[in-house]
Amino acid sequence: MGDLILVRHGETEWSLTGQHTSWTDLPLTRHGEEQAKSLAPLLSGRTYALTLTSPLTRAIRTAELAGLPGTVPDPELHEWDYGGYEGITTDEIHRDRPDWDLWTDGVPPGPHGHPGESPEEAGRRADRVLSRVAAALARDSGDVVLVAHAHFLRVLTARRLGLPPAEGRLFQLATGAVSRLSLEHGRPVVTEWNRTV
Hints:
35% helix
């Protein structure tokens, strides 16, 4: 059975400043493009059964620059919907809500079409992605790669390991990094995390 490989997109202006970025479709910075290109050696030489990206430009471009073949955008891989906290930093939120924590408190509703997500809602979406991933991995024809966003990939990692969605808080994920989840004695494990060149 293949591995599940997670790739966080390269740097954007908002990831650099710490602003919550879900649906805002920002391009990679020049540094973010270099990060994406530097992933190619980490991802080459493997056989891929399935390669999915978030539908947002920063993820699609990361996959292209990293040399991933045959990528398919999947709307379920979009970032956690930050609702009313889109574009706002945690420090700014803490001015009004000093005890706020994304992993336990979620977010307030945002503009039309962006009601925000709770950890449980993001977890249900991650479970749907993992169901499709499991089918591809079961065919034993290679690894599966997901190119997406920090918070969503952290939730997905927690769910893959059998943890509640909010335990994604335990898995910090840097821009332009590759992580790998494998199996040991039939159980999912982290075998590589936050690898960059």
